[in-house]
Specification:
This protein is of the alpha+beta class. The protein contains six helices and 19 strands. It binds 3-(2-carboxyethyl)benzoic acid.
């Protein structure tokens, strides 16, 4: 369907299924071959209260203003919310330990590893070097990390937030600089291929690159979208270094992390400037991705889907919210944030996670904060 193009350095980057290698399995510590689901939901609550619960792996506080976090599990993302300030809460399945390691914060329930880093761009001279540094630091954490029950952490998912993502023309756009630095720094964090990702622009004027992500005891499997050229194969017109992410990651728990998805078909943006048409196209892309990933039980209603939508212009928030809810009335959660998408003509992007019914029944619904 798409024209062949010269191989890119990342062309064919494999994401092989790795058997779960559990180095120190003993009769007292038998190998655990399955992964409990990560419980993800949104809440309107006080951060301090949520952090008191011992299974909380991470709390993301969205909103223009937020406290400077002290607890390593607390991240403030300065994207405006529509309505009251909102929290996203990740819960593990047993008591969490956490700490700081240089500029990094991390937490683990011994199944999952959460990590976050904020890098001030100024000392690095811009988003490119800041991104390279952020990803190298994450790589160093991963290289040194072992779960107590054995084995390294495999990255499943990254989120990236930077100020003024579309500033600068052509190859000087800050997003393109970010992509170049990320590609150089991401080695240790992408041994099995690229994880799913999101990259969104903030409007807070703080030139601080924020990267956070999730690793797990079991490697994930990358899934690409047949309607879209793989991002790491984007042609030169989108910048000197293609974005290094997979369209989705299937986790060892059976959950599906969906990358930031926009109205891109092949490699081209569709419906420039038309939010209503872009949101339908974006939802079509998500549907095709879910079908490709064999999420047969998601159904048209979107049961088990927890989504986030990013709108460039707050004026579009209500339309986006209602279009998503009418396509997926059984949605488990939706948060609409104001943020810039990495191509200027794109007005909306969606990401999220789907938990199959089997996973929800045992792990999610009992504890969900939605
Ligand atoms: C796209 O399809 C839209 O650079 O990490 C989506 C998800 C997008 C992740 C990234 C970019 C990224 O290309 C943009």
């Amino acid at each position: 369907m798409y024209h062949p193009r010269p191989p890119h350095p990342y062309a064919g980057a494999p994401f092989p299924d790795r058997p779960d290698v559990q180095a120190n399995a003993t009769p007292a510590n038998p190998p655990v071959r399955s992964l409990p689901a990560l419980r993800i939901g949104y809440a309107c609550a006080a951060v301090a209260e949520v952090l008191r619960e011992e299974d909380v792996l991470a709390v993301f506080e969205f909103g223009a203003r937020g406290a400077t976090p002290a607890d390593p599990r607390h991240v403030h993302v300065a994207l405006e919310t529509i309505g009251p300030a909102q929290l996203e809460v990740w819960r593990g399945s047993q008591a969490v330990t956490c700490g700081h390691e240089g500029m990094l914060r991390w937490s683990t329930d011994d199944h999952y590893l959460f990590f976050a880093i904020e890098v001030d761009e100024a000392p690095f001279g811009g988003p490119e070097q800041a991104a390279e540094h952020a990803y190298r630091e994450i790589g160093r954490l991963l290289d040194g990390f072992r779960f107590e029950r054995g084995g390294p952490a495999h990255v499943l998912r990254f989120w990236n937030y930077l100020d003024a993502i579309n500033e600068g023309d052509g190859d000087d756009e800050r997003y393109r600089h970010f992509c170049s630095g990320r590609a150089r720094g991401i080695d240790s964090a992408s041994r099995n291929g690229f994880p799913a990702a999101t990259a969104i622009g903030r409007h807070d004027g703080r030139r601080v690159l924020q990267v956070y992500g999730l690793g797990a005891r079991l490697a994930g499997t990358a899934i690409e979208n047949p309607r879209q050229v793989s991002a790491w194969r984007y042609p030169r017109e989108y910048g000197p270094t293609p974005p290094t992410f997979a369209r989705a990651t299937r986790t060892g728990a059976g959950q599906l992390f969906v990358s930031g998805t926009a109205a891109v078909i092949g490699h081209a943006s569709q419906h420039a400037g038309d939010t209503a048409a872009q949101i339908e196209e974006t939802l079509n892309n998500v549907d095709v991705l879910l079908a490709t990933a064999d999420e047969s039980d998601v159904g048209a209603a979107g049961a088990g889907l927890v989504l986030k939508a990013y709108v460039r212009d707050p004026v579009d928030a209500a339309t986006v919210d209602s279009r998503i809810r009418s396509r997926h009335p059984a949605l488990a959660g939706l948060l609409v944030l104001v943020g810039d998408i990495c191509r200027r003509e794109l007005r909306v992007e969606i990401d999220g996670v789907h938990a199959p019914a089997r996973v929800q029944a045992t792990d999610i619904q009992d504890h969900s904060v939605v």
